[in-house]
Design goal:
Layout lengths: L8 E5 L5 H13 L3 E6 L1 H11 L6 H9 L5 E6 L16 E7 L1 H8 L6 H12 L2 E6 L6 H12 L3 E2 L13 H15 L10 H11 L1
Parallel strand pairs: 1-2, 1-4, 2-3, 4-5, 5-6
Length: 209
């Protein structure tokens, strides 16, 4: 009897504001039994400390505390580890999601600059034809930002800006975060129930009337 093994996803967290998005994405993937290959930039660690009050003195311990209790497994790689397994196209993963993605990281990917593990792993996704999803978090956007996004979009990269919706009547910050994570999962064909869809929202209203 064959056993279906879920392959892993690379998740990148950069120094853009909104690190909670990447944390929530990692939690959801792990809860579904996936292996998550986690890369956090140095600026990403700074934002985790500033926005989520993570104690980043011992990074391995804090990651184990946050992500160690799920059915799936996570593997953390320092952003400087350019020789990590995920830096090679021969290492099989489903794809990569950078959430949130800074404009600096987006620019490096768009221009083929692979000088750290984050950008090298993204470059591998492009050359191997695997899924690459980028969640930019910046405002306002100038022409260089937009040109870099257009360049990547033309290569098949999914660009999903951190723009939460309100049609499903979110009740909390968690609802808004889950919505965006759900939109990312939709784009990589992973089923979930993180938010109420438009048609379902109308159906629920009909039932209540």
């Amino acid at each position: 009897m064959e056993t279906t093994v879920k392959k892993g996803w690379v998740v990148g967290i950069t120094g853009a504001s909104g690190s909670i998005y990447g944390v929530r994405l990692t939690e959801v993937l792990l809860s579904m039994g996936y292996t998550v290959h986690l890369v956090i930039s140095n600026a990403g660690w700074r934002v985790l400390k500033e926005e989520l009050q993570w104690n980043t003195t011992n990074r391995d311990d804090v990651l184990q505390d946050k992500f160690g209790g799920y059915p799936g497994t996570f593997k953390y790689y320092p952003v400087s580890d350019i020789g990590a397994s995920i830096a090679s196209g021969s290492y099989l993963v489903e794809g990569m999601i950078i959430m949130p993605c800074s404009m600096g990281t987006l620019s490096a990917i768009a221009n083929g600059s692979s000088d750290n593990l984050m950008t090298r792993a993204a470059d591998v996704m492009l050359k191997e034809g695997r899924s690459l999803v980028i969640v930019p978090r910046e405002t306002p956007l100038h022409a260089i930002h937009l040109e870099n996004m257009l360049k990547l979009a033309r290569l098949g990269v999914r660009i999903i800006p951190a723009m939460p919706a309100f049609y499903f009547h979110p009740k909390s910050m968690e609802d808004l975060i889950s919505f965006l994570v759900g939109k990312v999962l939709d784009n990589v064909n992973i089923s979930h129930d993180l938010f109420t869809r438009w048609g379902d929202q109308n159906a629920q209203r009909g039932e209540q009337n």
